[in-house]
């Protein structure tokens, strides 16, 4: 099948794609430069080994991606060098069940930790502001 200029080939027609480009196309990072930075700082591994941004990704590769507090353990199912809708991007990989469960548990733990903090409903009045200021002055001396 011939492709017109400007048209992208179907995902299965690509033999390999650069790692930074694939991470961007699969929507793990907002920009390609953020994907490249994550790879260079060791937050992305292919088959348990650190990789370079230019390393080729093939279907069937196992990736470990650290993004913020989340760790994704995925298998590459498809290749793409263009960023598309989220539904298409999610079809490019499959996350392991253990990885999903671990991420959900960590998210629930963080949510429970935040639940203890109750912000005040109103601004402090004149008396409370003076107390706050006085407490701040204790540390200065």
UniProtKB/TrEMBL annotation:
SUPFAM superfamilies: Alpha-L RNA-binding motif. InterPro entries: HSP15, S4_RNA-bd, S4_RNA-bd_sf. Residues 104-129 are annotated as: Disordered. Belongs to the HSP15 family. This is Heat shock protein 15. Residues 17-79 form the RNA-binding S4 domain. It comes from the Bacteria. GO terms for molecular function: DNA binding; ribosomal large subunit binding; single-stranded RNA binding. One of its GO terms (biological process) is cellular response to heat. The keyword Mitochondrion does not apply. The keyword DNA-binding applies. Keywords: DNA-binding, RNA-binding.
């Amino acid at each position: 099948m011939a492709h017109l200029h400007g048209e992208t080939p179907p995902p299965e027609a690509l033999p390999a794609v650069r790692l930074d480009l694939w991470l961007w196309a699969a929507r793990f990072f907002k920009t390609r430069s953020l994907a490249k930075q994550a790879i260079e700082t060791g937050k992305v591994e292919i088959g348990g080994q650190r990789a370079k941004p230019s390393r080729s990704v093939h279907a069937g590769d196992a990736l470990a991606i650290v993004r913020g507090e989340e760790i994704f353990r995925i298998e590459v199912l498809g290749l793409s060098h263009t960023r598309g809708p989220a539904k298409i991007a999610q079809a490019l990989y499959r996350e392991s069940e253990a990885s999903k469960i671990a991420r959900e548990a960590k998210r629930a733990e963080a949510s429970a930790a935040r639940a203890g903090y109750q912000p005040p409903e109103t601004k402090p009045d004149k008396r409370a502001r003076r107390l706050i200021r006085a407490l701040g002055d204790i540390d200065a001396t």
